[in-house]
Amino acid sequence: MENLTMLQFFEWYYPADGSLWRFFASEARWLKDIGIDAVWLPPAHKGMAGGQASGYDSYDLYDLGEFNQRGTVRTKYGTKQEYIDAVQAGKQAGLKVYADIVLNHMGGAEEKEEITVRKVNPENRMEFISEPYEIEAFTKFTFPARAGKYSGFTWDHRCFSGVDYDARKQETAIYKIQNEYGEDWQDVISDELGNYDYLMLSDIDFRNPLVREELKRWGKWFYETAGFDGFRLDAIKHMNPEFFNEWLDYMRAEFNSEFYTVGEYWAPGDLGAMLRYIEFTQERMSLFDAPLQANLHRASVEGKNYDLRTVFDDTLVQARPELAVTLVENHDTQPLQSLEQTVERWFRPLAYALILLRADGYPCVFYTDLYGSSYEDNGRDGQAQQVTMEKMTELEALLVLRKRYAYGIQVDYFNDPQCIGWTRQGDEIHPESGCAVLMSNGLGTTKAMEMGKSFAGRIFTDYLGKIDGQVIINEDGWGDFQVYAGSVSVWTAEG
Fold first, then answer.
1. pLDDT digits (tens, 9 = 90+) for 40-50
2. How confident is the model at residue 169 (pLDDT cuts 50, 70, 90)?
3. Confidence at residue 219, expressed as pLDDT on a 0 to 100 scale
4. Does the annotation count 234 as an active-site position?
């Protein structure tokens, strides 16, 4: 199988100028040419922040930039037709296009309802800190500008399990809605904060069968409208996995399509919970390897004090490689974001070599590493900060290396805490294939590694151009490969 690579084609601070869909359409063929196979696009629907919304604040799932709602017709990324055109441009270029699905919560309701709730301890959501009482909550969504087009379904308090605002007292807290579907939260895999069903805004209650049926109708409409190839599922840690079992089974059966799916179960320090989620969903989806991203962050911060031999310890790609989507950064971990866990610039080439040039995992490249980004936002201290994320000059070369050279048997040399390497011994299907990868977070060094006797006498050079000189493979198939301090080199055969 060809080495597939995904690209996250957006970052949190992408300008809110309605240009992203058009930009992707113009870039699609180039992306395919440099070795990208699939693209994850951001949420296409209208968010509660209108033209400024990232889409993770879902307002109207049926408004893809068609109706004048939340102060705008277009979304942050463009209009409905531009989205449809972008998906088609991607597919025509030979890319798979994955749609971002945000079904955990909704915000921006038009009307208040008087509802019965109990207040909960935010640090332990299983602990109620009030008796039942009434509040006024924004829980009724009527979508007046859409006026029933595509769906006449009205969302009200019976569709939600919790809210975070009492309009009567103008008080912010976490309130568990008391309704016929349960006085307690929905069952989720994570026991973080007691029960992490509630994340934000109006939390959708999947115990309501009308909600489940409406979201199936919406999924059918969305695919028939846009024609994408698969899904990225947002915030699944906060949702009962039974819902996505039902929803994915429905979508796959309805359209007789695989719909490749990757879920965001962000648990950097809890591989066990991720594995339980995989078990409960019976491998219906892959997951982003949050533990690996955390290890890469830590390796970049600790520098020469980090033991590179442990970089894959307690990661999804180590435990379930066939279901691991590996990554270096995303829109939540980038600087100034909610889950900020940045991989330092010096380590990014090493990190990408670790996800792009090894046998296991489905790597996902981040937008800023390909295009760069500059933005300003408030940091954790509340002070405005300017951030520049430079494009990674080595990334295109690493993508070529993955597509052309990183095949065959993998032999690891994880025998030094500051210098690790591996060889890929190539295969017959890819005649140029085979490479030797060496990286160091300490001093420059040389390591003997085996390429195999089929490479005897061949001359290897550093494809990344960091080291001049050659390595000649000896008659037993071994070579002495070099790397500079705090760097990575990838050696390939000439000619």
1. 999 999 999 99
2. very high
3. 98
4. yes
Q: What is the pLDDT of residues 287-308, one digit of tens each?
A: 999 999 999 999 999 999 999 9
- The first and second tokens of residue 375, run together, are 């933005």
From 11, 27, 205, 264, active-site residue: 264
pLDDT per position as a tens digit, 426-443: 999 999 999 999 999 999
Angle (CA) 236 242 246, round 5°: 105
Q: Is 264 a catalytic residue?
A: yes
3-class secondary structure for the chain?
A: CCCCCEEECCCCCCCCCCCHHHHHHHHHHHHHHCCCCEEEECCCCEECCHHHCCCCCEEECCCCCCCCECCECCECCECHHHHHHHHHHHHHCCCEEEEEECCCEECCCCEEEEEEEEEEECCEEEEECCCCEEEEEEEEECCCCCCCCCCCCCECHHHEEEEEEECCCCEEEEEEECECCECCCCCCCCCCCCCCCCCCCEEECCCCHHHHHHHHHHHHHHHHHHCCCEEEECCHHHCCHHHHHHHHHHHHHHHCCCCEEEECCCCCCCHHHHHHHHHHCCCCCEEECHHHHHHHHHHHHHHHHCCHHHCCCCCHHHHCHHHEEEECCCCCCCCCCCCCCCCCHHHHHHHHHHHHCCCCCEEEEEHHHHHCEEEEEECCCCCEEEEEECCCCCHHHHHHHHHHCCCECEEEECCCCCEEEEEECECCCCCCCCEEEEEECCCCEEEEEECCHHHCCCEEEECCCCCCCCEECCCCCEEEEEECCCEEEEEEECC
Active-site pick, 205, 234, 329, 394: 234
Take residue 45 and report the two structure tokens written for it: 């629907």
* pTM assigned to the model: 0.96
Domains in the chain: ranges and CATH: 6-103+209-401 (3.20.20.80), 106-204 (2.40.30.140), 408-493 (2.60.40.1180)
- Compute the average pLDDT of residues 186-193: 92
* pLDDT exceeds 70 at position 1: no
Rounded mean pLDDT of 209-214? 98
Token representation of residue 54: 């990232």
147-165: average pLDDT: 97
Query: pLDDT tens, 261-280?
Result: 999 999 999 999 999 999 99
Q: Determine the length of the chain.
A: 495
Average pLDDT rounded to a whole number, residues 191-215: 97
Alpha-carbon span 189 to 409, nearest angstrom: 37
Integer CA distances (angstroms), 420 to 260, 430, 438, 448, 449, in order: 33, 25, 6, 11, 11
